[in-house]
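Supplementary Methods. Inverse-folding protocol.

Structures were first reduced to a discrete structure-token string of length 425. This string, shown here, constituted the complete conditioning input.
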């Protein structure tokens, strides 16, 4: 029977879950990320689990139900503290889901106080006097005011959170945070006396988050972006150590599957091709008929190259050519067909013996993880900020896999990633 969990986390989307897991590993925790709520108890001994949901923009009641299921599973693993993770731009609608999920978790945990802060200074997200800044501008001037699903038109998080909650929302101001844990705890006691149940927390630097950490010791529920995580492992006597990110030794063949069309990924594809390694371009217009034939063709091609090093299979294209494809196939159909084909290719590559795989693209990663029937990812060393190597079991055997969302990673990511796994070839 593994030891009880120190920290049980519920994330409202997939890449956000990885971001949190990555921060926890870097601060000294051994972490597993699960895809949805697991059906079985944990098999590995870890310090924290991040349950990745897709609950950011679904109906509030569904988000509440799924989050409570995740909570129940985490409690079953003995989790000492619960962390509800959302986006660092506080992505939500007037109805939620951050507020309703927070209140439902508070009720289930029978707690009368929690914090809420998306602050993540390393990524330019800072909160001051309750206002969220994205880089140098307020949230509602950052472009997020135009988000198709969760337009953020108010940067004042006390107001935003209050609109989503029945509980009284207050502010733990920077003046208090700057004074450290004792002052923070005193202010929390004051806020509670005023009837505040949820406090937005100011934080403009990692130092603020490190001062906040000790004040959160023993608080049953925390709600935050991934930033708060950097100050938590110390509460459990853990300090940063490379041991936290140790994965089983890597072996097997190497491949990159890329469906992201972001600027960074376009540069990464160009860089990989410039090294002279083999690359196969998937043209979405060839997928209209029997895409299974194309998958077979790609796999036959890959079989001829894999023995000599990593291969790249990509649909990555410039914005102009993506637009041309979308106007012929439709935006959704184009996306879906490419995801299906790349996911089938990822599975086929693993069947061919690939055990080290880079996947580029958030949606593409979701499709590949599903096709590989991956339920859990053990989080390993960081390749670039926000992108760690992971280890996972599939029905075809275990793999090392990294899931790179669009704009992450340096230009040489597709080649350098493998060197992190095989330092002693
Ligand atoms: P990112 O993380 O960069 O947003 P995603 O994988 O989340 O990447 O999204 C990219 C989307 O674009 C996916 O739905 C993918 O299937 C689709 N796509 C990939 N290549 C093309 C292409 N050449 N033309 C049109 N759509 C594409």
């Amino acid at each position: 029977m593994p030891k009880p969990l120190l920290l049980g986390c519920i994330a409202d989307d997939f890449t956000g879950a990885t971001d949190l897991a990555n921060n926890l590993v870097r601060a000294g925790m051994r972490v597993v990320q699960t895809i949805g709520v697991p059906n079985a108890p944990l098999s590995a001994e870890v310090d924290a689990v991040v349950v990745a949901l897709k609950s950011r923009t679904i109906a509030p009641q569904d988000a509440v139900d799924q989050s409570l299921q995740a909570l129940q599973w985490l409690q079953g693993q003995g989790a000492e503290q619960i962390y509800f993770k959302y986006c660092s731009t506080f992505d939500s609608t007037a109805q939620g889901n951050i507020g309703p999920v927070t209140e439902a978790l508070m009720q289930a945990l029978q707690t009368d106080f929690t914090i809420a802060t998306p602050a993540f200074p390393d990524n330019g997200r800072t909160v001051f006097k309750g206002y969220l800044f994205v880089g140098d501008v307020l949230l509602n001037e950052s472009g997020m005011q135009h988000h198709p699903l969760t337009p953020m038109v108010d940067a004042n998080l006390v107001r935003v959170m209050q609109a989503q909650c029945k509980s009284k929302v207050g502010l733990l101001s920077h003046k208090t945070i700057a004074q450290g844990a004792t002052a923070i705890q005193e202010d929390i006691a004051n806020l509670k006396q005023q009837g505040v149940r949820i406090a937005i927390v100011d934080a403009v630097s990692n130092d603020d988050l490190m001062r906040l950490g000790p004040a959160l010791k023993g608080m049953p529920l925390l709600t935050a972006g991934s930033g708060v995580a950097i100050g938590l492992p110390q509460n459990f006597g853990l300090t940063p150590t490379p041991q936290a990110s140790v994965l089983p030794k890597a072996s097997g063949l190497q491949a990159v599957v890329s469906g992201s069309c972001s600027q960074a990924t376009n540069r990464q594809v160009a860089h990989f091709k410039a090294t002279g390694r083999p690359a196969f371009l998937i043209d979405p217009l060839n997928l209209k008929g029997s895409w299974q034939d194309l998958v077979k063709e790609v796999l036959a091609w890959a079989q001829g190259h894999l023995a000599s090093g990593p291969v790249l299979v990509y649909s990555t294209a410039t914005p102009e050519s993506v637009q041309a494809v979308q106007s012929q196939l439709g935006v959704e159909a184009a996306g879906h067909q490419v995801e299906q084909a790349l996911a089938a290719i990822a599975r086929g590559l693993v069947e061919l013996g690939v055990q080290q795989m880079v996947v580029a693209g958030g949606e593409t990663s979701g499709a590949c993880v599903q096709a590989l029937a991956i339920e859990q990812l053990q989080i390993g060393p960081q390749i670039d900020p926000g992108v760690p190597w992971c280890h996972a079991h599939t029905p075809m055997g275990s793999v090392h896999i990294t899931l790179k969302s669009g704009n992450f990673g340096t230009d040489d990511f597709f080649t350098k990633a493998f060197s992190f796994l095989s330092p002693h070839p």
